[in-house]
Every structure is written in C-alpha cells, then in structure tokens.
Amino acid sequence: MENLSNIVVFNLSGLNEIRSHKYVFFAFTLLFYLLITFLNLTLTATILLEKSLHEPMYIFICNLSVNTLYGTAGFYPKLLADFLSDTHVISYAGCLIQTFVIYSSVMCEFSNLTVMAYDRYVAICKPLEYHSIMNNVTAQKFVLILWILTFCEAMIPILLTLRLPLCGSQIDKLYCENWSVVKLSCVDTTLNNVTGYIFIIKYFLQFLFIVYSYILIIRACLQSREGRSKFMQTCLPHLITLICFTVTMLFDLMYTRYGSRNTSQTLRNVMAVEFLVIPPLLNPLVYGLNLTHIRRKVWKLCIE
C-alpha cells in the first residue's frame, strides 16, 4: 500500500480512451480555448476602455469575464499538454493548485451572479434609490470583497485535504479536483465530507436568494411595458447565464460524488467538464449579443 511519502504525482486517467485521436482533440480544444479567451478578453477590454460602460452592471459583467479567464487558465493549458503527452500526470502541489484555481473560479462566478441578481433587483424594484444603493464605488467594493472571500473559502477544502495521508494516486478525471483526492485517503474523511456539504448548502441558499430576487423582479416588470423591456434587455442574459452555470455545476457535482465507474469514460468526461466548457463560451456571447450597449461598443472598437 502506498503512503503519503511515496505519492508525489497523480495519474489522470480521463484521457486513456482517446489516445488514438489525441491530436484531433488537441486541435479542437486549442481552438475552443482561443475562442473563449478572445471573446472574454474582447468583452473585458470593451467595458474597461469605454467610460460609458463604467456602471455597476457592466463592472459585474467584466468581473465575470475576468474570472472566466482565470478559471480556464487553470484547466485548458494542462489539458492541452496532456493531449501531446503519453503520460498524464500532475504533481501533488500542481494538483492542489489546479483544484484551488478551479474551485475559487466556480465560487467567484456563483457569488458574482448572486450580486448581479441583487443589482438587478435594486435597479428594477427600487429605481429611485438605485444610485444611492449601488454605484461604481460600491460595485468595486463588492468585487474586491467577493474575491477575498472566494479565495478564503477555496483554501478551506485544500487545507483539509493537505492533512490527509493518501493510499492511492489514480484520479479518474481529466483534471484534479478535491473530492477525487479525498477519496484516495487512508483515514476517515468525515470532516472533509461535512465541509463539502456545508458549501453545497451555502450555495443552495444563494441560489434561493437569486430565485427570490427574480420573483420580485418579474412581479415588478409585469406592471409596465417599460419594465418588461428592461427585464428582457438586462435580466434575461443574467438568467440564461445562471441557469447554464447551475445546470452544468450540478452535472459535475452529481458525477463527482455519485458517479459510477461503469459509465463510459467519454460520458464521464463530458459531465465533468461541462462547467469549464459551456459557461466560459456562452457568457460573453449572451452579454455581448443581448446587451445593445455592449454590442455597439464592441462593434465600435472593432472598426476603429
């Protein structure tokens, strides 16, 4: 039996079934990553360079894109390198760093979506009070606090995992994530498990807050044509983003904790990476195409 002192690398077995087509997958993944990077950089640059977009809603959208660039940087470069390699391994430290980056990115995105729901609630349900409650300085403080809290939260499962002696080195995924490492432990992992459920409950409560906010928003919007128009322009993109992110995260959560090894590796890979593939591409498209103000500014930057 292996012990902690002997485990310096983990084997990632998620790519074992596609070795014969690895260059095709590499090409498509590289193009996809470049597209994600281009779209999110374009959206970020547009909001930063255009002073007319320096408003709370656009600040949160910009933070969403910055977080996407941060999170995907923790996943795609390593995956691309694995496509070109015959051995798919990652060091113990590298595994924990990748886990931290992906976890903190996920936490940041969900918290950012929660703040955006509050912003839309104040804008539509309390329009006369909006600028006194939510302004650029307040939005920037929200973003700063959000990142600080996210990093602190993401460190908790990492620190709890660091204390565990391990009896294995096989991770049945394309990338490192905390629960896959915890399952390799030689000792009781109740504390890690309970902590995980606490985080799940916390983000479920945030989801309920978002749902409640949108119940109030929809009720207010139904009272006037102007309200319905404002909802379609500014709230619908946020709802699409939220639903997409929540559904893809549920797939990963259910697969990670309750997935069966009898399921085909391809299906397991798809379920495991949906949240790292769909939202990063969909978010800039949804906001860039649906928000007229952003679309016009992007077009302006492209033709100058």
Written account of the structure:
- The protein has eleven helices and three strands.
- Residues 1-5 have low confidence and may be disordered.
- It has helices spanning 22-49, 56-73, 76-83, 92-125, 130-133, 136-162, 178-182, 190-221, 225-258, 265-290, 292-303; strands at 9-12, 89-91, 170-171.
- It has 304 residues and is mainly alpha-helical.
- A three-stranded mixed β-sheet has the order 2-1-3.
- The chain is 75% helix and 3% strand.
- It is globular, with a radius of gyration of 21 Å.
Class by SSE composition: mainly alpha
- Fraction of residues in helices? over 70%
The topology string of helices and strands comes to EHHHEHHHEHHHHH
Measured on Cα atoms, how large is the radius of gyration?
21 Å
Number of helices: 11
The major sheet is characterized as: 3 strands, mixed
Envelope shape: globular
